[in-house]
Amino acid sequence: MLAFILRRLGILTVILFGSSFILYNLAALSGDPLADLKLSSDPNRDFLIASLTRELQLDVPPPARYFLWIKGIFGIFLGHPNFGKARDGSLVSHSLALAIPVTIRLVLTATILAIIMGIAIGIITALRQYSRFDYAMTFVSFLMFSLPVFWVAVLLKAYLAISFNNFLKNPIVPIGWIIGIGLATAVFWASLIGGTRRTFWIAFGASGIFAAALVATFSATGWFLNPSLGPLVIFALSIGIAYGVTQLSVGLTNRAALKSSLTMSALTLLSYYPANWVFSHHPGTFPILAMAILAIVFAIVSGLAFSKIDRLPIIRTTVLTALLSAGLLLVDKFMRTWQPYMQTDAINYRPVPTVGQRSDLLGNDNWWLSSLDIITHLVLPTLALTLISFAGYIRFSRGTLLDVLNQDYIRTARAKGLSERTVIMRHAFRNTMIPLTTIIVVDFAGIIGGALITENVFGWSGMGTLFRNALFGFDLNLLMGVFFVTASLSVLANLIADLLYSVLDPRIRVGSGG
Amino acid sequence: MIFKKKSAAVATGDTSGENAIANKEVEGLSQGQIVRRRFFRHRAAVFSLGVILFIAVFVFTALDFKLFGIWRIHGWWKWTIADIPDLRVGDCPGGTVGCPTMSLRPKFLGGAGIGLGDHPFGQDDIGRDFFALVMKGTQRSLSVMVVIGSIGGTLGTVIGSISGFYRGKVDAILMRFTDFIITIPAIIIGSVVGYHYGNLGAIFLAFYLGLFAWTGLSRLVRGEFLTLREREFVDAARVAGASNRRIIFKHILPNAVGVIIVSVTLLMSGAILLETALSYIGFGVVEPDVSLGLLISKYQDAFTTRPWLFWFPGLFIISIALSINFIGDGLRDAFDPRQRRRISKKERQDSAIARKLAQAND
């Protein structure tokens, strides 16, 4: 195993070396960084040309200059890499350090959302193959596949952001919309749950009426201007989470898990006021993380207290319930920040922005306001990226699960008399996750370099913008810096994916063949 | 609920009766015939095939077309992208200029009657006919798609099959070369190539993009060849004295053709989006050439005032990409031997009755 990893790492280094050499020379030969200076009529033109030439070592021919560049990169092994200087004299490593967090912030949420939703919908469509829901989702995913992201982005800006901001001027939902939302929800849930004609119509009626009533209440009470959940709604939702997580994870017949999860719901209700005290007196990321850890500790204790045998699945279930319920407290706090946020001068009741990564006019003094500001700026890009990328996960997880369901061990599991939940979640789903994991790893690596167009449309300045500027300005060191980061990440991710595959699937032997 | 008891939806469908139906259906048919039959049963795919053919013919005959640079074939549309007719001013909603003259509301409903008018898709800033521009852009997109698909497809198939068939050193070298190309992200290559050579024309750009688009396909084909070459029929052919060339072309390739065709269609639908995206950010097709991505990029700020400049190019991109995806899906269903057609309720009942009759006769 170790020999395999070392050999692969060696090959990867050679590959990176070669491809960076080729790209360096291609990019160097394709444009002259001094071109615009040579044409300028600046009196100290010659001095500028001379200083830029010295700074970027332009007097060295590109193939040789490449080795000067790679010498700086090899500094990684000595702890002080040198990515060289950009044209404006700034350090490339500095620009990269600024851009990478922005890009991660932009793409991480979207990728995680796309993975979770894509896998969930993919699995449901596979379980209900050839149902109307399956056909509808197939069509939707193909449509998403075919959408150019810049096109979606413009539509989202025009129809979602601007209309929503206009709507907030007078937040009364018209009756037609209420009926429409109710019908859409009803169709979605009813086709999702399906079953006999009777359950279909029950689901249709219940979800439709519930959604319509909810929207009508929100509209009547002015909830959109001052939203909140409140302790009782949080408690109710938390009980729902407890039941849902338990059903998916170990089944409702496992009373210990259910009791342990419900304890977490009660604990969430009890911690409502203490948590809010912490939120308002000690805002920041650290207290939130501390509370999450506290929730995990409580969950483990409760899981241990309620279970006698088979403890791990019960603890897992409880921890998941505790974290999701604690998340509700956070959501509630953000909701109650909404009204003060909209009242600030920087926002002035138009909370969904169409461009930029934060409102510069908004001060930094209130942690909750600036966090909410970051979230509102994330809404549109995240939505656009999620929409176009989750289709792939739907198709992939559907296909894989269908393959797995045709395997003999699934028939064996059914023949043993296991419940359908156990067959799907434990036998089928876990095996579906093997190929999915490797794809997810590679996708996460692609995150860093992958949002060139989205960044451009929404006016963010991350890696994509850096790359674009480098290309337009013949900024060789900057271009190579971006390339080096994205390429080494993608190469590493491929290696990790291969290793994970062999760890998850014992049938694959690592190091056999090429 | 989602977890229902074992039902028809979850069932693998391989009870003997259904197998009998499936087998009876393919009796005495060649692989090509089976595939064609299965494909034509996929209604969405057939419909998409019709759409794509229609768009191709519609678009390529619309404008003047130069064959081999000599023959000039006149298009059926009255404007070309070089014409600059008068800009329509005055009778547009909201005080804009160059709005579409197309009307779909008949006269008795208070509209202007069903008709195209002079400029069905409107006009751009200087008055050029937008229908002609969109036609030109779609021509570009379609040609880019075909060029990337054929170059990428050929390279991927050749490299994948050589490395899968010969294994050993050849395989190691070719696969490291593939890794090498994969390291360079497609968008970076596209940008470098498009930025510096984009002005040489869309076909040249597509040619270069195709040179880098084969990696995924070659890995798939290699995997397919690695499994197929171990099969009995290949051993049989070798024992019978077939040459490597004959084994590759007559025995292995026909069995791998499904994988190849399906991935090439997906490659093509990716290619059309890649070209539009590159043109959008300014690295792809550049003016004075026309491309759908370029049109959208140019007029995205006009969306609120002149939305037609944004809608029509987008709709053409989506309908082409969507059709290609559906065709790919239909082909996958047609080629996949594990894929069983959905057995209709009536056929299942028929086979159940037949089985009961057979049991009663025993």
Structure description:
The complex is a heterodimer of chains A (514) and B (362). Chain A has 20 helices and no strands. Chain A has 514 residues and is mainly α. The model of chain A has no long low-confidence stretch (mean pLDDT 84). Chain B has 362 residues and is mainly α. Chain B is built from 13 helices and two strands. Chain B has helices at 16-26, 31-41, 43-62, 130-166, 168-183, 186-197, 202-210, 215-228, 232-239, 244-281, 292-299, 308-335, 345-361, and strands at 65-67, 71-73. In chain B, helix 2 crosses helix 12, helix 4 (130-166) packs parallel to helix 7 (202-210) and helix 8 (215-228) runs antiparallel to helix 10. Chain B is globular and about 80 Å long. The chains are: A mainly alpha (514), B mainly alpha (362). At the A-B interface, helix 1, helix 6, helix 7, helix 17 and helix 18 of A face helix 5, helix 6, helix 10, helix 11 and helix 12 of B.
| Total number of beta strands of chain B | 2
> Averaging pLDDT over every residue of chain B, what do you get?
77
Return the average pLDDT of chain A rounded to an integer. 84
Work out the largest interface and the residue count of each chain.
A-B, 58 and 53 residues
- What are the low-pLDDT stretches of chain A, counting only 5+ consecutive residues below 50? none
Q: Counting H and I runs of at least 4 residues, what is the number of helices of chain B?
A: 13
Strand numbers in spatial order across the main sheet of chain B: 1-2
Written as H for each helix and E for each strand, in order along the chain, the element string of chain B is: HHHEEHHHHHHHHHH
Q: Helicity range of the residues of chain A?
A: over 70%
Q: Which structural class best describes the helix and strand composition of chain A?
A: mainly alpha
Unreliable stretches covering 5 or more consecutive residues of chain B = 4-15
Reported for the largest beta sheet of chain B, the result is: 2 strands, antiparallel
Radius of gyration of chain A: 27 Å
